[in-house]
Amino acid sequence: MSFAIYPSLKDRRVIVTGGASGIGAEIVKAFAAQGARVGFLDRDLDASNALVAELDGAVDFEPCDLRDIGALRGALGTLRSRMGPTDVLVNNAARDDRHDWREVTPEYWDERMATNLRHMFFAIQTVAPGMIDAGGGAIVNIGSNSWWEAGGGFPAYATAKSAVHGLTRTMARELGAHRIRVNTVVPGWIMTERQKTLWASPEALERHRARQCLPDLIEPVYVARMVLFLSSDDAAMCTANNYMVEAGSI
Prior knowledge:
The structure is a single chain. The chain has eight helices and seven strands, in the order E-H-E-H-E-H-E-H-E-H-E-H-H-H-E. By secondary structure, the chain is of the alpha/beta class. It has a single domain, classed as Rossmann fold. Strands 3-2-1-4-5-6-7 form a seven-stranded parallel β-sheet, sandwiched between helices. Helix 1 links the parallel strand 1 (13-17) and strand 2 (37-42). Helix 3 (69-83) packs parallel to helix 4 (106-134) and helix 4 runs parallel beside helix 5. The longest helix has 29 residues, at 106-134. The mean pLDDT is 97.
């Protein structure tokens, strides 16, 4: 399959959170292939170093537990010192851990919000001033189709991901006057190694295929391609919206 090249992404300075594996790693690879200057944050040192090695050191990496906002700000500052101000921010990091609503404690709920939502706002808060100074930029938040489908088994995760929609809309309004675009990419069930290992049983896959309009399972590369488009000049008039990559799942 042949994919587009976006000349406007060459030499753009891109930050991806949660970039060591899964969808995040595919996004990092996609930007690197466009000639962008890519840095990513992740707490998984082994996976991060493996990705840097796979890409022959063409991308930068800073270790960070995104639940620690001070560490997040510090890591973004470190990448800025090496790469320069951020042109594109991709708020990707999240974990869709399953949980029974009857067993959720206030502490677990807060940890899920910190893992799946809170860092997105503070990453935007940290990088947006540089985008304002530069006269524009692009922010892509990764949402989830789970709450659109009324999916069960992870109420804290689904709640956090539904809030990404609100974050995108309000920050698009806050930053639009500075020509900073903010959008959400909404993946369906994406066949990452984590999904295949933990939940993609033959029975679950068949049930899911029946809900999609298209018959094929969705690979992470297709999420990355939508992120590239929304980060490029081709999407100059796209902001405050959701862009679905879910094969018509209902």
